[in-house]
Every structure is written in C-alpha cells, then in structure tokens.
Amino acid sequence: MTIVGISDGFRGVIEENVRILQPEDFSGILTRGGTILGTSREKPFKSEIGHSDDIVGEKVTAVKKTYHKLGLDCLVVLGGNGTNTTGYHFAQEGLNVIGLPKTIDNDIVGTDRTFGFHSALAIGTEAIDRLHSTAQSHNRVIVIELMGHKAGWLALYAGVAGGGDVILLPEIPYNIKAIGHHLEERAKSGKSFSIVVAAEGALSIKEADMDKRDRKKYRAENGPSVAYRIAREIHEETGMETRATVLGYVQRGGIPSASDRVFATSLGTAAADLLAKGEYGRMVALRGGRIDSVDLSVPAGHVRTIPADHYMIDTAIAVGTCMGMD
Fold it and tell me: Which fold has domain 4-115+254-295?
C-alpha cells in the first residue's frame, strides 16, 4: 500500500495539502501524543455563519476532486463524532471511506471505547489526586472541570478513580441543594475538604429547563465555564470557601498510555485489514471485548451518552459519591 498523508484534516483534502508517507515518518510514533499530520475543525458539509450553501458545495466538490486526482482507493479518517459523520457523508457521495474512533470524550456510538480516552483519564485522575493535597491543606471545596461537552465519560471515570466527592455529568442535571447538603454532611462528619468533578457540559436543573438560546445567555452572564458557575453556586448555598480549576487542553496532550498504544495499534491493524479486503464504509470498533467494525451510518450524527443504569454510576453512588441528585 502507498500511504498518502493529508495535513490539517478535511481542510488538507480541500487544499490538496498532501505528501507520501515513508517508513521514517512513523519512526517513534507509538510513544507520541497528538498527530504528525495536524488537524482542523473543517467540516465540508456544514454551513457556517456568513457562508452560503454554494460554499459548502464547493468544499465537498473540492474533496471529491482531490480524492480522484490522487487516485485514492480509500479515505481513512481518524477522529470523533464530527469526523466520522463527515466520513459517512462522503461515503454517501461515492467515496470509499474507513473511520477510526479517536476522541478523549469516549462518546462515539458503535464502539465500547475510543483511543485517547484512557490517556486523558490518567491525566484527569492525576490532576484530581494533586488537588486533594491543596483542598485538604486549606479546608476548601475545589471544583475541577474536565472535558465532556455532551457526554460525561471522562468526568465519571476520573471522578471515581480520583475519589471525587461529587461528580456532575451532562446526562444528570444537578440540584445545587442536594450538592450543598452532601458537602455540609461531609463537613459535619469531620471531613474538612471536598473535591467536585464536573464535566464541561454539566448543567443544573434550572439550565436543563431552559431552551438553548436562554441557556447560552445564562452561561455567558454567569462565569467563563461550568466550574466557576458551580463554585459560585456552592459558596452561595453553603458559605464554604470554594475554588475552581479548569484542566483544559492539558487533558489532550502528553505521552499516550500503554493501554491506548495497544488499543490504537489493534484498531489500526484492523483498519489495514479492511483496506486489504476492500471493505469500505466501515468504522473499526471495540465491541464486546473484540476488535470489530460497524457501518459508518452507526456513529453518524449520534453521541454515545452514559445510560442512567450504567454500572459506573451505580459504583459511584455505592461508594458515597454525590451525583448531584437528591
């Protein structure tokens, strides 16, 4: 096989920013995070503010033109929901496409896990571990915000692994009074500090009742991100000294974990096998403990959120964690 590396995601296909990759390009790649090709937020099928449908059509046409000009047998896309959804749309346009599930959010439908999640989980857990020291020293409540806009897998797993006292997820709108009561009970029992782990998409019951427009306005008026809103709400509810920490893009960098290296290698070899067999329109996936693949229509346009009956939620509650509910 000849491997054509496309720089900067779909923008690179539009602009024909490509190069043939040689074995030396992959030397040492197993221990590196990120991507040697670069990426972008380019979404050829999505209209942007101020852009006409003609622009979208031109981008789609440009991608198809580059694909055929280069004589590609298949376009291999690595990314999250948006990337694999775009890949599905191009498959519908007649291109051969294979997808790989790469996101720290772990929220792609059709696979039990995505690569990047385990590495980010380790970083999030370490950050929570470090916050325990300062929270205990200063008798404070500290709210740490992890990524997860629509799904709270990272916050849930890191919260349990790091011993978070409260875990707040997009899937479970929180009641600030329930959180306040839990923190006050901890204080009465002699526990002078608490750690609150919040996914960036966590929302209160009040916010859940708002429409999208009102929620956006409310958030703009009440702090730069969810950690600051929750910290303010906790202070107002309990009077406890509360601080906010946003881990941000630290979660996405660094050296990949051994588990992610093995997992990504397994998915990559499975993708190569699909290429060799000419089986296109698929996304490689982990399903029931086996490396498998699903039709690209499965992840397209969907988000894998945490089910209400997921065992990790039960686990968190069983060890005394408050999930923001009464």
Answer: Rossmann fold (3.40.50)
Q: Is 287 exposed, middle or buried (0-12, 13-18, 19+ CB in 10 A)?
A: middle
In the numeric block, the tokens 């969907």 are attached to 302
The values of phi and psi at residue 88, to 5°, are -65, -45
- Residue 46: pLDDT band (50, 70, 90) is confident
Q: Do 107 and 54 form a contact (C-beta atoms < 8 A)? A: no
Tell me the sheet residues that pair with 273.
Answer: none
Q: How far apart are the first and last CA of the chain?
A: 57
- Sign of the CA dihedral 57, 88, 310, 151? negative
* Mean pLDDT across 76-82: 95
Confidence (pLDDT) at 27: 87
Same topology, domains 4-115+254-295 and 118-253+307-318? Answer is yes
Q: Are 168 and 324 in contact (CB under 8 A)?
A: yes
Residue 295, strand partner residues? 282
166 bridge partner residues: 196, 322
Parse the chain into domains and list their residue ranges: 4-115+254-295, 118-253+307-318
Please give the Cα distance from 23 to 37 (Å, whole number): 14
Question: Which residues, in sequence order, are CB contacts of 36 under 8 Å at separation 6+?
Answer: 5, 25, 29
Neighbours of 88 (CB within 10 A): 23
Q: Rounded mean pLDDT of the chain?
A: 94
Q: How many CB atoms lie within 10 A of CB 46?
A: 14
Establish whether 54 is a catalytic residue: no
The yes/no answer on whether domain 118-253+307-318 falls in CATH 3.40.50.460 is yes
Mean pLDDT of 165-192: 96
**What pLDDT shows up at residue 48?**
61
Q: Which amino acid is at 16?
A: E
**Active-site residue among 54, 105, 107, 295?**
105
